[in-house]
Amino acid sequence: MAELTHFYETFQPSHYDIFIDINRATKQIKGTSTITGDAKTQSIAIHQKYMTISAVKADGVAVPFKTDDANEAIRIDLSKTGDTTLAIDYSAPLTDSMMGIYPSYYEVNGEKKQIIGTQFETTAARQAFPSVDEPEAKATFDLAIKFDEHAGETIISNMPEVKTENGVHYFDTTVRMSTYLIAFAFGELQSKLTTTKSGVKVGVFATKAHQANELDFALDIAKRSIEFYEDFYQTPYPLPHSWQLALPDFSAGAMENWGLVTYREAYLVLDPDNTALDMKQRVATVIAHELAHQWFGDLVTMKWWDDLWLNESFANMMEYVAIDAIQPDWHIWEAFQTGEAPMALQRDATDGVQSVHVQVEDPAEIDAIFDSAIVYAKGARMLVMVRALIGDDALRKGLKAYFDAHKFGNAKGADLWSALGQASGMDVGAIMNSWLEQPGYPVVSASVVAGKLTLTQEQFFIGDGKDAGRQWQIPLNSNYEAAPELLTDKVVTLGDYDALRSASGEPFRLNVGNNSHFIVKYDDTLLQDILANFTELNAIAQLQLLQDLRLLADGRQISYASVVPLLPRFADSTSTPVNTALYTVAHNLLKFVQPGSSEEQNLRAFYDKLSAQQVTRLGWLPRAGESNDDQLTRPYVLSAALYAKNPKAIAAAHDLFTQNSANLAALSADIRVLVLRNEVKNYGSADLFEKLLTAYRQTSDASYKADLSAALTSTSDASLIAKIIAKFEDAETIKPQDLRAWYRGVLSNDDGQQAAWDWLRDDWQWLEDTVGGDMEFSTYITVTSGIFHTASRLAEFKAFFEPKVNTPGLTREITMDTKIVATRVDLVEAEKDAVNAAIAETVK
Ligand SMILES: [Zn+2]
Q1: How many angstroms separate the alpha carbon of residue 290 from the centre of ligand 1?
Q2: What is the pTM assigned to this prediction?
Q3: Distance from the CA of 591 to the CA of which of 95, 150, 220, 466 falls in 20 to 30 A?
Q4: Which of 72, 121, 227, 290 is labelled catalytic?
């Protein structure tokens, strides 16, 4: 059992001089970490992982030390406490784990190349240099790096380079910062540079496998985001430059290293002339997210990992605030409503989910708290609630005070609440703690009881849930003035319903705008009233209605059979949020039908009915001057028509393939994946398969790569599926960073599921060895649980994962995902007859 004290309690660094010598050929790192600081005790601990320590000196004198690998430590005995300069000589392997200092691989014109980059969050700086690797242990850093350099290579870091001497690159002293935000990278890089209004240098860097114009979009968004934040936060960007670097191998989406943000290539470089609008929006929000962190996370950092939400929830809200300000025509908050909101509501409804604020000590558990649906999406919704309550003026005033008070230091959640509370005059902490500290969220039941309009809150569960008596302070946002601003009790009665209804002249609604983290269950009287006045609802209200009904159906509070007949009335909406919500519900019906059954035939006919008019209206190709909504809606309706096996849609996609077969990448990116998948499914052959697989290996366009992967994994040919599985462990074809998407693709294919599932179970050890040190590892379990819906798969899932339940970092995921599959199996068993009858009735 690891001993879990914070090393900062034993030694408090103020400055590092770090020298690292990296040899790509031998895959070895050696270096010296010289740390000046204050020894609080004579026995101190410094972090290291996977290192060989050859010498430790304190103030120039060799001192006794021993490495303690179980605790990722060097234990050092000093002769005194107080001011001390440690010099630690070390060597370490350069590994391919996408953590610490690691190589990324790529090809230019068939020639194999490497870029060395870094990824230190959460606890991998200790793999690069001995350090007190805790967010609270802020210090200044002088970085000096040597490598087996050849002509044409560039090295970049958090700060500008000041000199090169004897092949060693010296970087300017950093500001006071946390170890996990240190970064550097070198290799043959191309770049595009600009300057903000305030004089900050902004740059985008990528390998030369990309066309130069693929860097332009990111450069523009980065520059304008920084300018936006400098104004919004009323706090200058704290460093001389802001570099954005795309790395060919990257585990997460992006990483907010201070002054040198690293990205997965898919989230930074893109073809400005042929990239789908939703992908451009995604890239823009990722960049804005990382740049929000340059202040919130980097300038002011959480004291310990339990307050990770402070960083992530905030950056996740600000990415939308920023992009909405700099690109208002995108209506980017709609993407929040169709993406983050349902993700948070789905995951947060399973008993056993973590709270946003979560206690954590063990390094193996720290990575496991990065639950994107909770720490990011739910946390962002919480802050959206706060923003709605206090308004932007108080938010900005509070943030400025927060930055002023804690800059170059650390903070806890309470510090943010107190700054926002002082700025707004509201007790923000009291309201928010019910959301921050408690897992889950409430369903508010609105009903007419003995003539009185009554509201009741209770925790909402999908699947079994233990009633823990939780209550929330719920911003109700009702359209009736009789409803309180906050529901703080379990039950509240608003008054005589008939009188309220006639006074207001419109149906009773809660959570108008869908910004509070709860769902509403209207009784039949209230729901029928809303449906009867359905055309009065705006797009977000329609999305919300569909979303809440879907969740209530997943939670067995209503039946999917009652939702099915409502869907056609949404089918001709011209709004992206409505269509997204509609097809999310429609997609949820797939689990109720057996492949090849007459029920499946009916469901296909139902999809045809939903999509037919829209396919006629929108056609296959973008039209000059069409709305963003039309661009974003088209893929949903075409995908539905293809699922429906509509012969005209299949033929139209085939025609597009034939016309573009000489240059498939040039197919309109909005619909390219549909055309490719249609070809593989309906006109597939071994030749086509090889052609697409070769294109996958050769292209550097991440969007096109993703389309090809989705197409290839949809094949129904068993021998081709076997070929795909054989490539899973071939990093030259499928990079480990992209493997999960391939696995998901094959697993969700009825004809490939068995092979993918067998691979996961047979080669689990390989997977653990390859991505096990990584926060993405547990998501292979999540992906699997998102697809399985039969009793036999549930039994296999349990048999395989239950023995692994005590693996550090996997416990919560295995427990929750077992419950998620079991709940879905129960739902299908209980409701499939009624749901299929409802579908049959609708298509009669
Ligand atoms: Zn983040």
Answers
A1: 6
A2: 0.97
A3: 466
A4: 290
